[in-house]
Here is the input.
Amino acid sequence: MTRILVAIPVCVIGALSLAAPARAQVETLTASATLTTAGGASARAPLTVVIDRFATDAERDELLAAVTKGGTTAARTLLAARGDAGSVQLGAQRTPIKYAYARSIGGGRLVTVVTAEPIAFVGGGLPNAPAKAGYDLGLVMLEVAESRAGQGELVPAAKVRVTEQGAIVTEDYGSEVVRLSNVVKK
Here is the structure.
């Protein structure tokens, strides 16, 4: 599934045009991940995101430049060289976070997390679908609301690129969208 993120380009790399301070405190966010296939079958798993460090504006700019220049391959190379900024745990699978960014939105924050490896390969009707070349990043977008449970989306294996118009585009490994519900800060 290909998505063009024009209205909210922050969903992939996270508030690329807005400033946010780096934070040193550990933050834990939990959610329920639900995958529903075109055939109506669904699977649910707990998701826990532990962020040890948020990206600086310079790191955000560096990542955007890498995606603009070389898409997924350049982004993965850059992120793989960075230290871990936390972890994403989907069910029993734990994946290191290489980039975490947060920005304020009405009534809360939008937190974007990127991994330098896929979080999982789901799709094609198979929970343990095999790896596919080029789908080298994992993305998690979480709306963390102040007064209620938030929502979000998980792209467990993706490609990314920037269009000529400056929009960030993701291409998901699977055709099904993994929705996140009950997003809360612990």
